[in-house]
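Late entry, 2-deoxy-2-amino glucitol-6-phosphate complex.
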Amino acid sequence: MCGITGYIGYKNADKVLFDCLKRLEYRGYDSCGIALVQSDGIKVIKDTCRVKELEAKHKKVNSKIGIGHTRWATCGEPTAANAHPHSSCGDKVAVVHNGTLDQFIPLKEDLISKGHVFKSETDTEIIPHLIEENMKTMSADDAVKKALGTIQGAFAVAAIVQNENKLYVGKVGCPLVIGVGDSECYVASDSSALSKYTNRFIYLKDHDTAVLTPDSIKLFRNGKETEPEIELLDKNLNDAELHGYPHFMLKEIHEEPRVITTTIDDIDDLTTLLAMVDKDLGGIRMIKTLACGSSYYASLMMRYLAPQILGIPTFAELGSEYCSLTKGQKGTLAIAISQSGETADTIKAAKAAKANGYKLMAITNVKNSQLARAADYVWTTKAGPEVSVAATKTVLSQIAALYSLILAHPSLSKLNKEDAMDTFRKLPDQINKIFENVDSIISVASYLADFKDAIYIARGLNYPIALEGALKLKEISYIHGEGYAAGELKHGPFALLGKEVPVIAIVSHDENYDSLVTNLREVKTRQAPLIAISEENDLTISNLADYVITVPHTKPILSPILNLVVVQLLAYYTAVKKGNPVDFPRNLAKTVTVE
Ligand code: AGP
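Prediction complete; structure with ligand written out below:
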């Protein structure tokens, strides 16, 4: 998954492209490049560096048309030769691509047999050569359309052709949006990259292609020219500034009290939506959640909450492993959860569930995402744009939305609802209290930073938080964290325990407390350093653990929300201690648009 962009108009294209690429770097940042149409041909500049470094090396040129790319390598290692844009022989055509092409080798061999010389190991490079080959017998417009009709797989593509005052785009499976300006047009993988320039957008559908000039947009849908549908987007949706924080991750964690408050404020709207879903389904009788990564761990909360509180059987499915075996029966609801709404595995699973007769609800942070467009019902989490690759406030907003779904369910008594809402309303202040006592987390983090491995354990509702804590530690500190249900340790992982593997235990004062304390004693018998995340004034725990990070007291059923904030901060300060690039960790990208 990469970020692509393009510009055609009256501004200096290089300046616009570099600016948009910086806002797309969350999608991949192992190399980048731009290509510009100039009077003497197409100029390609690319390298294995961050966008701002390439911009610093670049000598400004006068061009009003260009394309740009920031890469997360899928086919061909992150080298300068494999970086995008890719061009045809003599740079007559240049292309940027997000996605992965299937069956491209036969096409490549055919082009080589026709004398085309390839400079990279990528799948993408066949596209400019295909266009150039087609141009031997047709116009550039037709050559591009034919090439985009020939390639297979997932792609969002932008292309420029020498001596053509045009920008060409097309997509299947990967997101692509056109930003409409006055006498100028923009394209990007994500509207947030363009919201500085315009709030008028055209979201391309699968198999759409378009030809852009400064003053016109020709959109082709299923081969026929179609009137573009322009959507207005709220301009101030894109707050990609650090506001004095050292990293976006810390800024976004500090937005979490507001995220909870927003979720509480929206509960009436969610109640209305859920009432409609419940009516349409004739009562929700079974729930299947579909998600990947941190969103999957958030979805696991529903597997505990819905059966326990609403008596609705609930199954949590991994998006990448989901194959829709069971037909959707009356009353079955699939809930697909994805902050970006663009995760290919989750979208594929959601479409499979829908094709199999499930009603599909999407819980996403991006209103205009592909997942939202595929769903029957959409709940937008309103956490605001998240820049840091490691998801934090969006995970919290998803979990808060799932709690709200429970609270919004018509079967829940008014009394229980009000009681739960009271406890919910206390959470923002309690999260701020955790921020005030962050020193204990910072000192445990500097201790944890020296280890290579760590194990997170918990029971019940906090088990998903142990999994998420381990993922966060892996993602940004590069320490191999593993999350386990505490009861599972003795069935194997115990073999890993010893002085070199600290155990981080999430303790909750619920029906699992005694069993968990037994597990902690078992851990101590193997001399493993024990770090406990527990409520204040718990002597049993402070006598057992080597380190205790305290959280304010709340109802056990809501403790996962406070413990989530702690494991996020623990991972953050451990990564900072290790001097890692917290917001842009190695080998990762924020949005995974390929399978
Ligand atoms: C989380 O920190 C990771 N960035 C990753 O696991 C992420 O949660 C996963 O890729 C799912 O993304 P989504 O919520 O946008 O679908």
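The longest strand covers residues 93-102. Will revisit in the morning.
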